[in-house]
Specification:
With 332 residues, the chain is α+β, with helices and mostly antiparallel strands. It is built from 10 helices and 10 strands.
Length: 332
Amino acid sequence: MVDVLSQNEIDALLAALSSGEMDAEELKKEETQKKIRAYDFKRAVRFSKDHIRSLTRIHENFARFLTTYFSAQLRTFVQISVVQVEQLPYDEFIRSIPKMTILNIFEAEPLEGRMVLEVHPNVAYAMLDRMLGGTGNAPAKINSLTEIETTIMERIFSRAFDSLQEAWKTVLDISPRLEAMETNPQFMQIVSPNETIALISLSTKIGDTTGMINLCIPHVVLEPIMARLSTHQWFVSEKKMRAPEELDALRQRVNKAELPIVAELGDSQLSIAEFLGLQVGDVISLNKPVNNGLSIKIGEKLKFIGSPGTIKDRVAVQIDEIVSEGVEEFDE
């Protein structure tokens, strides 16, 4: 970002140049020198800003779906929103979370590899308290989960992955599945410590209890679909290949669709008095000669030119000409 000088700083700079305290040539040399930027190899940049923006959009939808899901399940006020999306080493993520927390390890086919949904104990125990009939307050002291509590937690978060599947539909059809639940981050090693991850932090409020839900997605998991996270791919709708059975079903439905077909002999204009005075045997003059073909319309569009006739004592029309697309109905 370019620094903007104040008027006093500009006056001081001009005075220094005039008095000879500062050399203009030296300033030019400093500007032409190459700027060196430190690069930390332990914090490798694997996700571009474009990727981060796409992940933010996806998980803003995820937060909205989660809000609806948890509000219905817990029957209380729930508010979830994306705080930030950042990239950092996996080891740094492990060191940043509490020693006692809820770690939902899951896979999402067709993506290869494991991901983690980390839920702060305050949030997890508030959910558990609501499911067991409480007011939704987290306990002062966090203890290890019992078997019953673990089963309830697994059911809550297994269904929460449906929201993740819905949020990712615009990019990829995934099938998230809970693999295991851990409470100690030291026992969870899904990738190497130096592997770059995308960390999506969700601020969560359940009643009066607040906490964080963190979604950890390793770079190696997203690497095969990184191109789909670009802005171009995000806004350009991708044509999806339909399965053969879907095409057959669609073809059958189209074949059964009914369309009105009308063969017009012509038209004529009459006054109200003439119309009221019509009697059996009167002749109405049309706007077309008898040797002109009939206009055959499909719906409201002229598609064919035909000739009148009969087949087995029934009125029929023979198609003589196919009208090109866009041609209006002909007149004499």
